[in-house]
Design brief:
five-stranded mixed β-sheet, Aminopeptidase, 2,3-Dihydroxybiphenyl 1,2-Dioxygenase, domain 1, elongated, alpha+beta, binds coenzyme A, four-stranded mixed β-sheet
Length: about 280
Amino acid sequence: MQFENPVDYQQLSLDHVEPVLPVRDVNQTIAYWREVLGFREQWTSSGEPSDIGAVSWGAVHVQFYSSKDFVEHAVRHYVWIKVRQLSDLYAMHQKNKAEIVTPLQPTGWGFSEYIVQDINGHHLIFTAPGTEIKDIPKQKVPVKIVERIPTFEEVCKLTESVNWKAPDPSSYNQNLESTVYAVVSENSETGEAIGCAFLLGDSKSIFYVKDVIVHPQWQHQQVGTKMMRAIEQWLDTNAPVGATAGLFSGEQLAPFYKQFKFVQACGMYRVIEHK
Ligand SMILES: CC(C)(COP(=O)(O)OP(=O)(O)OC[C@H]1O[C@@H](n2cnc3c(N)ncnc32)[C@H](O)[C@@H]1OP(=O)(O)O)[C@@H](O)C(=O)NCCC(=O)NCCS
């Protein structure tokens, strides 16, 4: 039987790719990509003007070379760049007067994107999963954190709000048997659950943080932080010294969980399946 292994260090793999774009002038292009598009790092070949160079920002690296052919017969290239906080980048590019040839809009396949034309005519497609950039009106009503287990209906609503698969009643009930602590964020005016977080475990040596969710209308208002503070406090008070608490999350949430003393580590897991 073949297992799908997310990271198998024994296997041949391709690790990194960098587009190499023909440009009219490497130094001018780098200045544009830094000052208007916001790229942070650069390098250039020696010589004046440089004939090759590159910019980078986070995991995105793009190289340039000056090309006479390109000056005579410019051919547009396309670079697709996946980002987080797409709306913030869009606002920055608007402020910097980047030439936005297609405004920010949903793609129809679950992503949203906008297209910038750089000074060479190349098109840079900045994109993110649709839910990250949905124009969601934020709710500002006060929220209270209540120590209780969210109901099945509440969990279903919250998982749906972040496009997760809703649990079935039996998996919800199984979770409850292992739950040692849970919190619900309630809209103080209506009592509606707008967030939840579970702590599962054996109360002795192993704990697992599960289903930390804040409804998108209330995200980025410290609700998740307050729920995780409650879990942190519970662990500090009740978990025995030497016990381990773990969780799975996307890498982008590492800074969020670091606030509560969770650090990244190499892990392995298996999902049990019965034939
Ligand atoms: C992750 C989640 C629970 C955070 O809740 P929240 O109430 O929005 O978080 P907070 O307002 O307390 O965030 C504090 C900081 O953490 C970081 N952070 C929060 N959510 C983030 C995200 N999705 N990506 C990157 N950083 C994030 C930010 O630095 C944020 O500060 P900012 O709002 O000034 O940018 C919420 O975004 C969510 O429900 N996401 C979908 C479900 C999910 O992925 N849950 C985690 C599973 S392990």
